[in-house]
């Protein structure tokens, strides 16, 4: 693994104990220029992971607490009339930061959730007919409570599809939770020299990811997986061309984190569940590997197609 990638993972792991795989997937999502959805029970470290990821790459961070009374203007901003100059001035909302934590996104109404759609797809927002560009890089991390909990609204398929990955953190291993309990006071992000890189270095890393080589055989492997989801009635939803692109983006980022300049079938398999499960079964409740009843349509696809 490349030194800088390992340094980033180690820094975050000092706060989110015993969870290297979710941390690697989160970094992979950022390097692939995607957006991340984290679904898990309250108190599992979703917010800590999000804040730590922003801090470690030196990006500005804003947390938006999604509640039932949150309005779209509370996210994107509002135009206010100034009587002295007889014109409207735009006051940007918290979305004008490089990393946005949309906390408990499924507790807000669908109308408010949709305020993120244009931002996530086009890195811009439109207010009163005027388009405003968002900072670059722009990375949304949304946390979601399981759908069986009270006061939640399911995310529509069109919005789920905007997330490159959906992951869960899960319960920590016994040794990590024991270490947590032994600490009289956990270190905060502000108390640690956290930034490993700056914005320019991050953008350079993201550019390097796009240069990772994927062979024709590897691309055909991805297409076989995608086409099976379209041809078999076993899967509730088929994978779209955007999903194909997302699989390739994420696989390139995973290969880059592993220190290789080419993508292998193992890279595709490592990221495939996180990239596709929320697209194959959007209405399913996802609680990660700790939930034995998880549908795992992505694993059915992987087991049906022989890798290159």
3D structure, described in words:
The chain is of the alpha/beta class and 308 residues long. The chain has one domain (3-183, 196-304): P-loop containing nucleotide triphosphate hydrolases (Rossmann fold). It contains 13 helices and 9 strands. The protein has helices at residues 3-13, 20-31, 46-56, 72-76, 110-113, 117-122, 157-160, 174-182, 199-210, 216-231, 241-257, 265-280, 297-304; strands spanning 36-39, 61-65, 77-82, 87-92, 99-103, 124-127, 130-133, 139-144, 165-167. Helix 1 (3-13) crosses helix 2 and helix 9 packs across helix 11 (241-257). The chain starts with a helix and ends with a helix. Mean pLDDT is 87; it is low at 287-294.
Order of helical and strand elements? HHEHEHEEEHHEEEHEHHHHHH
Low-confidence stretches: 287-294
Shape: globular
Secondary structural class: alpha/beta
- Give me the number of helical elements: 13
Q: Give me the count of strands.
A: 9
Oligomer: single chain
What's the CATH class label?
Alpha Beta
Number of domains: 1
N→C terminal distance = 23 Å
Q: Strand percentage, roughly?
A: 5-15%
In the sheet with the most strands, the strands line up as: 2-5-8-1-9
Q: Based on the structure given, which CATH architecture is correct?
A: 3-Layer(aba) Sandwich
Gyration radius, to the nearest Å?
20 Å
CATH topology: Rossmann fold
Protein name: AAA family ATPase
């Amino acid at each position: 693994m490349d030194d800088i990638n390992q340094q980033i993972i180690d820094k975050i792991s000092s706060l989110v104990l015993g969870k290297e795989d979710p941390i690697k997937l989160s970094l992979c999502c950022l390097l692939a220029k995607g957006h991340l959805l984290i679904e898990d029970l309250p108190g599992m470290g979703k917010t800590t992971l999000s804040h730590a990821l922003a801090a470690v790459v030196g990006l500005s961070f804003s947390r938006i607490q999604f509640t039932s009374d949150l309005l779209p203007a509370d996210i994107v901003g509002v135009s206010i009339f100034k009587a002295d100059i007889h014109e409207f001035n735009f006051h940007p909302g918290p979305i004008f930061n490089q990393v946005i934590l949309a906390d408990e996104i499924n507790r807000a109404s669908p109308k408010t959730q949709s305020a993120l759609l244009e931002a996530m797809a086009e890195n811009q927002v439109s207010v009163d007919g005027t388009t405003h560009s968002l900072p670059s890089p722009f990375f949304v991390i949304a946390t979601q409570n399981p759908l069986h909990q009270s006061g939640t609204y399911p995310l529509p398929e069109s919005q789920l599809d905007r997330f490159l990955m959906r992951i869960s953190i899960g319960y920590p291993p016994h040794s990590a939770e024991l270490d947590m309990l032994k600490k009289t006071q956990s270190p905060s992000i502000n108390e640690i020299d956290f930034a490993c890189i700056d914005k320019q270095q991050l953008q350079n890393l993201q550019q390097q990811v796009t240069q990772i080589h994927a062979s024709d055989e590897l691309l055909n492997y991805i297409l076989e997986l995608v086409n099976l989801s379209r041809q078999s009635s076993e899967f509730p939803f088929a994978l779209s061309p955007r999903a194909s692109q997302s699989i390739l983006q994420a696989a390139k980022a995973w290969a880059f984190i592993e220190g290789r300049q080419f993508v292998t079938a193992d890279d595709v398999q490592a990221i495939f569940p996180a990239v596709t499960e929320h697209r194959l079964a959007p209405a399913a409740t996802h609680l990660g590997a700790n939930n034995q009843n998880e549908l795992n349509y992505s694993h059915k696809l992987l087991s049906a197609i022989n890798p290159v």
